[in-house]
Design goal:
Blueprint: H1 2-21, H2 25-48, H3 57-75, H4 85-101, H5 106-125, H6 127-131, E1 132-135, E2 138-141, H7 144-167, E3 171-173, E4 177-181, H8 182-205, H9 215-243, H10 258-262, H11 265-281
Antiparallel strand pairs: 1-2, 3-4
Helix pairs in contact: 1-2, 2-3, 2-5, 3-4, 3-5, 4-5, 5-11, 7-8, 7-9, 7-11, 8-9, 9-11
Length: 282
């Protein structure tokens, strides 16, 4: 009972923080820069516990946070593309440094260093692509799409849990996540698409459909988030199984670590960006 109360309180504060941060661009940037740093720090700590692995946690984390701010500055029109040069120099340094450090396994050091940037930093940074867009000669901030990605993920988790508990018989991926079922995943997906259509209706009613997405396109966004969010969850489960751990950390009482809470979004955010850009091309 005590653990349930702790989990509930943490979940309420977590959801409230995510929702409110999107109401202002500055709050979104600061919160997710912090999330990026904490997640990279957690990830590098986990891999450094493996034998022979020595990733530079401080430089790798600072580089990741800098890239997030650089993406925010570039996508908001505050900075030019030159803002990425220090980040590129840092990556080159992290590669070249292994020549001189004489570490036990430099190849794995390189691999985990770059994985932290591709697996964590890049997806979070792409929130800025979803949040800022050009309108003529101006760049505006819009919170609907990035917030919708997280709302869809939360609804999918809830729907999958309820449908899986009631109807789940066929395992989705028993080798990695025995608790997930096809029935739960399908139920969660249907619920998300229904909510996505509701979001379309509300944004149309209140003149907030900034990207002028149709009901079908909103449903497609919801389905994209569900599919890639599920894969993101499974990838993190595989990562933890490989390391032999249950939770990625304990920073969120009752909910584990940062990777545990944001695992689905690490694939859902890039997928949402690709989906929306594909719509503009079509």
């Amino acid at each position: 009972m005590k653990n349930f109360i702790v989990r509930t309180i943490t979940a309420v504060f977590f959801v409230a923080a995510i929702i409110t941060c999107f109401l202002r661009a500055e709050a979104m940037i600061l919160l997710f820069a912090l999330v990026t740093g904490l997640t990279v720090w957690e990830f590098t700590g986990l891999v450094n516990d493996r034998g022979g692995i020595t990733v530079n946690r401080m430089i790798t984390t600072v580089a990741g946070v800098y890239f997030f701010f650089a993406m925010a500055g570039y996508n908001s029109g505050i900075t030019s593309a030159g803002v990425f040069i220090p980040y590129l120099i840092t990556l080159i340094y992290l590669m070249v440094a292994e020549l001189y450090l004489k570490q036990e396994d430099p190849i794995h050091d390189w691999a985990y260093t770059m994985m932290s940037q591709l697996y964590i930093v890049l997806p979070f940074s792409l929130l800025n692509v979803l949040a800022f867009r050009s309108v003529g000669s101006d760049i505006i901030y819009t919170w609907h799409i990035p917030l919708a990605v997280f709302v869809f993920l939360w609804i999918n988790d809830t729907g999958a849990y309820l449908c899986g508990s009631l109807l789940g018989k066929h395992k989705l991926f028993p080798r990695i996540s025995p608790g997930k079922s096809w029935e739960g995943s399908i139920g969660g997906g249907i619920l998300v698409m229904a909510v996505a259509v509701l979001v379309w209706y509300l944004t149309e009613q209140y003149n907030m459909n900034d990207l002028q997405l149709s009901a079908i396109e909103w449903a497609g966004l919801g389905l994209t988030v569900v599919i890639f969010g599920t894969w993101g969850d499974l990838i993190e489960s595989l990562f933890k199984r490989t390391l032999g751990i249950k939770d990625s950390g304990n920073i969120l009482p009752g909910h584990g670590g940062m990777l545990d809470r944001f695992d689905s979004s690490l694939l859902a955010i890039p997928a949402a960006v690709v989906y929306l850009y594909t719509l503009t091309i079509i």
